[in-house]
Amino acid sequence: MTADLSTEQARERIRAAYDPTLLRQAGHVLVEALADHLATVQQGQGPVLPWHVPEDLVREAGEVRDQIPPNGNRAALVDRFRRLLATMLERGLNLHHPHYIGHQVPPPVPIAGWFDAVGSVTNQCMAIYDMGPWATAVEQSMVRRLGEQIGWQVGEFSGLVTHGGSLANFTALLTARNVSLPDAWERGVMTDGRMPVLVVHSDAHYCVARSAGMLGLGTGSVLRVGLDSQRRMDPNRLDELLGDLRKRNQPIVATVACACATPIGAFDPLQTIADICRRHDVWLHVDAAHGGCACLSARHRHLLTGIECADSIVWDAHKMLFVPALCALVLYRNAAHRFEAFRQDAPYLFDPSAPGMAEYDSGMRTVECTKRAAAFGLWGIWSMFGPQLLADMVDVTFEMGRALYEKLLAASDFQALHEPQCNIVVFRHVPAGMTGTSPEHLGRFQLELRRRLIQSGDFYIVSTNVDRIGALRVTIINPLTTTRDLDQLLDALRAEANRMLAEGLA
Ligand SMILES: *Cc1c(COP(=O)(O)O)cnc(C)c1O
Hints:
The protein is of the alpha/beta class. The chain has helices at residues 2-17, 20-42, 54-65, 74-91, 110-122, 133-150, 165-180, 184-187, 206-214, 235-247, 270-279, 317-320, 376-385, 387-410, 439-456, 483-502; strands spanning 125-126, 158-162, 197-201, 222-225, 252-258, 284-287, 312-316, 328-332, 371-372, 414-416, 424-429, 462-466, 469-475. Among the domains are: 156-355, Type I PLP-dependent aspartate aminotransferase-like (Major domain) (Aspartate Aminotransferase, domain 2, 3-Layer(aba) Sandwich), CATH 3.40.640.10; 388-502, Aspartate Aminotransferase, domain 1 (Alpha-Beta Complex).
């Protein structure tokens, strides 16, 4: 009898959690709170980063978690939801603040989050078509649209969406490995007693070296091609290296070029690199995680000339297509390569009675089995605003990169470290009192200056090293950031530096 009673109580608690009226009421709270929050943040009110030391936040998250209301009736639950939500919004980084000029992660077009929310609440997963039919259709339609933007014909190319650019690069390079070394999937990578190499841009993202480790090549098999004066892959050196490798019969998995490379946003001369790779019969992979967006912009399309000759391309929608993380595309020029990454059967997933469905079972192509419906946000904003909005955001943010560069050139106390090709700008602040200091000291000063600035909540920017010396780095990836904000950034850096000098910290 007691068993029945406790089952009934369990059912009662479960019903309360699944109550659609609770969802409705909490949803109204959510919509109001998020809209109010963005209205404030987008006007630049409040801190960009409400800085707290991590241990304090971990403790707070635990304390909040344990304050479960004893009487979980619906009104109490809605109230509880309201307070949890307020805490989440108060403690997070405000990417929509015009003073967020930090990493290559955008403030997404907010409404993209609503499309993602539909996928989350109804749990439209992928792996096999029937688990997420609309999610699959949306993903494939976006692969087709973006492949067309690259310059390919629908039907000839293929692609997939995966959980981020790192996994996307790994997946594309796994395909390159299996095509370039046809026995690798079953027998491993050693070919005639030789370890194959991966030829990469010297500034390639660290996930490329990780991929080499994960692909069984070893990071020692990564050969870095030298750069030109603008930190682009030097095609002459690539040509020499590939020629030399071919002469020695060294197996080559792929060449990895960048559009653009992360440190200063340099775009490789893709047409020349593609011609060289074709001449040496080497797979060309282009990591366009950040810069793929340029093909949507009439003004910046030229940065990607030749990208259509790549065998595989990675393009992060959660960067410059302004959707929430994670959504990254892998594109293959030749559709025949779409199943090469994983030469495997999983009979319980893939139904031999309907072999044509494999085309729509994403699990055949991805590391993930269960996969989040990652393209809803992208499909949603594309369907509401069209590609013009994305082109506008690329144009405006790239233009702000240029504007910041010009301000740095005009200021005697700032050094621009390169001429930007996009919205990534790297520079140093050199206050009048520090002109004679050593490069190492000046580099350490940049890192300290950046840390103090972000902890003040006034701006969020990033630091990096250029030739092992610290520097400041911004990605103007908030389309709401204006030249006025950029002027304020320079002034905020000056003011913080002056405080450091006054405190004897510099
Ligand atoms: C951001 C970036 C990556 C990593 O992508 P994630 O989505 O962060 O995993 C790889 N390569 C380049 C060129 C990038 O800009």
